[in-house]
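Action item from last week, closing it out:
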Amino acid sequence: SETAIGTPITLNSLADGIYTVYVIGRNSSGTWQDEAAPTISQTWAVLGGSRTIVLNEVLALNNSAVNHEGTYPDMIELRNVSGSTINLTGLRLTDDLDNPNKYVFASQNLGAGQYLILYANNPAGTSGIHLGFGLNQDGENLYLLEPAAQGNRVLDTVTFGLQLADLSVGRLANGRWGLATPTFGGANTAAATGNPSSL
């Protein structure tokens, strides 16, 4: 319905999933924006509180921060936040929900509290788990999906914008995502940032 621009929009009782709010506006002369070309106001995920595997850190512009056998790949870290070993077999990672099977985990376990480092590139003769696709340093969405046989439910997601070289985005101590110093394989460390009031 028509809502004043300063009034928050509240949506209740949403099931787990990815949601986008589209809005159309009216200018000062009373002309409405074309409904066929709405503005995307916000995209977000509703996730249940019983998650066991989470996206924990993302490095999308690795110029020199993390050397992996002479290469500097994009990197993703998963973390098992549960108290028991989790079987990852069939879980999927993608940056495009229209292509949900970009990477599908083969037989892989992750112990309680452990981290799993993934390289977002092709192997090029290096060890480790390589996803076969890179990340967009200009920003994008990354999704962790349940196995295809169980549906397309999003287990976790992160949206990031334009990246700074050699800094990651990580889930910090308060549970929120923030700028981080790469610490793959260990607890995330917040990176120092400037005062936004100076912008």
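Closing note: The mean pLDDT is 90.
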